[in-house]
Amino acid sequence: MTDGQLVRQALAGATPAYETLVRRWAARVVGVCHARVGRAAAAEDLAQETLLRGLKALPTLAEPEKFGPWLCGIATRTCLDWLKKAERSEVSLSKTGASDDGEVRFPASGPDAAAAVERADDVDRLMSEVEKLPEPLREVLMLYYYEDCTYQDLAQRLGVSSATINARLTQARMKLREKLIPQDEKDLHRRVKT
What we know:
mainly alpha
């Protein structure tokens, strides 16, 4: 079923139709939000706000077939509103090992637990560095990996050329490598190449 058909059903009062649209577009909305604000936790909240705003504004959608781009536009505006709030202040009280509900959980012991903790640390470190990237690089990187889009899809969506998408992804990856690969490994790779 197309987005347009689902929008028309939702407007007619069929709640499951909007739920289907949410499942279809939620990952992309989270990707847009994460790219805009640079924080995973905030992106999740902003994506929820976007989906709620989308539901409330659904009667204003002139072209139901363009639901996805319309919703991504709402996501962008929601993020910009959040970023502009002067009174916004966030204090993170979470600890390493804290779950989404704030409860601190400790992994089981053993080699599997140690590997899981190491992987979690690596992911946290990666996401921290991704969040520090300039917005154009972060946006392309997050959308590319969140949504598994082609360069052409991203170019069309962002209004740039495929070559620009390639350049931004290459630059983002290089910056991440610089930050994440330890200096001794870089030196080893240089010695092996020469």
